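Hey, resending since the last one bounced:
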Amino acid sequence: MYQLALPEEVLKNLQPWLISVCETGSVTIPWIQNARDRDVVFYVKHNNSSEEVRLFKSLIKQYKPQGECWILEVIPDRKYLFAYQYHFLKPLFGETIPTWDIFEPVMKARTKRFLIHWAKIHSDPGSKLWYHVLTLIYLFRNNEYSLTEDQIKNVQACHDRQLTTELYNFIITELNHYAAEFGITPIDHNGGYTSGRYKETT
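The structure tokens again:
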């Protein structure tokens, strides 16, 4: 079981600004083998205090183990590419754990729109992040937080940067189905598509 490197008394001294601390990343996803990415997310009320942010940075220098990623985030937070990981958050400190239901209609629509945008500006099949895109496609198909054995094999291949042309084309086809659903221009990497920063729409 993972043990946070920060002493509990240090965490308590950060309250009430600090709400909770959670473990996330590929190490918390049950179907990923040889997972290495561990993210420790510190959820806070705000990040507009230079003094508190400076204190957090000093704690990173003093306590953060090599290889871990410590992230400061404000509740609520939406990171659509990783939205499904909220289901697998492991609490390390505090009581308020953020939750996002990717199957809730508004959240589902926003996540699909984000995936379309992401794929339009990330045309490199060698990117490890495609495994998150494929995971979300499968989860939406299954309508639950679980994958079939064949789906797990495909997601693992993406995680290990072994995305085949067939699987890549499957992903783009599925995303273009989403695009048609929302009346969005389809993904066409051969057309040299260029897009700006993603803007959330309702």
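The first strand starts at residue 18 and ends at 24.

Sorry for the duplicate.
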